[in-house]
Amino acid sequence: MKTFNDLISYNKYLNLSLPHHPLMDSRVCKQAIPNFPQVSDEIQVNLFKISLKKNFNGDINYGNNKYYTENGLMLFSKP
Predict the structure, then answer these.
(1) Could you tell me if 34 and 6 lie in one domain?
(2) Which residues is 2 bridged to in the sheet?
(3) What pTM does this model have?
């Protein structure tokens, strides 16, 4: 399994441009997806992530609970 502990190596793996700052990066997902590798072994990413999804309506399962949103979504994940 390949492990990533920094944005620079993770971005290189995903065929993305280098981040403007080594500790933070910002991407529009649909612009980045065409660059992703077609095939990948299992990876582990030891980075925090904040995702914003505008215009999202629907149910989200989190833990044992289900939440409904109609005003977009913000997700946080940790390594």
Answers:
(1) yes
(2) 43
(3) 0.68
